Amino acid sequence: MENFNIHYNSIIVGSGPSGLGAAFKLAENSNQSILLIEKKKISSGGLRNDCKQNYTYPVGFPFEHWEKEEADELLEEVKQHLNPKMETRLDIEKYIQRAKKLDVDILAIDQAHVGTDKSSELINSLIDKLKVLGVSVALETQVEQLDENKKELTLATGEIITFDNIILGPGRADYDWMQEQMDRIGVEYKDNIVDIGIRVELKEENYPIVKEYYDPKILFPNKVRTFCTNSGCAHIVREKYKGYYSVNGHSMSKDKKPNKLVNFAMLKTIRLTEPVVSGQQFGKILGEMVMQLSGGSVIMQRVGDFRLGQRSKKETFNNDLYDFKPSLSNAVAGDLSLSMPAKILRDIWSALKKLDSIVPGVLHPSTILYYPEIKTYSNRPQFINKNFCVKEGYYIIGDGAGTSRGITAAWSSGIRAANDILNKS
């Protein structure tokens, strides 16, 4: 798109699930002029990478913002647009009973999975539907800044556009841009929560629960949990953040040949208090430390080496007990204990030992632990109402605002913000 109007009733920044949820709700229920702005060629984040969807409260829905009844209602609306094909969940009672004995909870969640190789097709189809509904879509378009006194924004090209309402859903990766805008328009916020953890990679035969439950949601003591399990054709990737790399997991659709590997994150939620109050900065410091120790990459360590208290070396990734190749080839063999804070490592290792009792085989010597996986989940703006309004005509939604943790809840937060605009018009 090249030509912009000088004014829109509603502007939505970010074409992730929160932005799409808001755009569809507004477009289908009003005659507003709507502009959807995305700085990349295609939406990034969870919708693009793997596209795993959870349809059971409370997964993805922070308790401080959501009640079950409303979440369930909006999830039905999300289904109408994403048309999920639910994964089969078989009998997992034996795992649930083992977990209970260890003070561990396994949540039974309705899930759907698209796969990284199929997600672009889904995203493009959603954008095309919005265009048919009359939404103006500006891809590869950067919002430079909001004006502190007027309802207008400036693009990186220098163009100025005014609006009646603006919905910001830029996602977690643009937390610093979001903080700059909140500072400009006078919105108070907190940034004191971050998830720090590892990504575990192992042979599927050593984690057979994935045969019965696609993405097991397992909650351990000390605020540790599993997150984003991938199987079938599963790979670990390295993602670039500002100043460091974080690992993440992907899986392809069932059309792709399986590689018989599984990966999942083990994350510990950290809530910071004074004097260190920025979760984003804390995560960045840890990520930068790994960059120093690894020579500019991420670290991997075999469980066999970790248990022996010795670092992994390139030559220890051999064909003896270590009988599969790491899917992330540019990870550097090293020692997690040199770079991860002891308290975090202790709680994650304790959780892994419990998991090995629930699903024996997890801690096979060949299992690989990659570090860091850092989820700087959100700024937490001070909202003036329950619909994520931060000042009259301004809304901040999605994972980057702490209103959600995942695709379906982010989409739901977009619906809620849009409903507020519709009710006021």
TrEMBL record:
Stated name of the protein: Pyridine nucleotide-disulfide oxidoreductase
One Pfam family recorded for the sequence: FAD-depend_C
Domain of life: Bacteria
Domain FAD-dependent protein C-terminal span(s) in chain numbering: 222-376
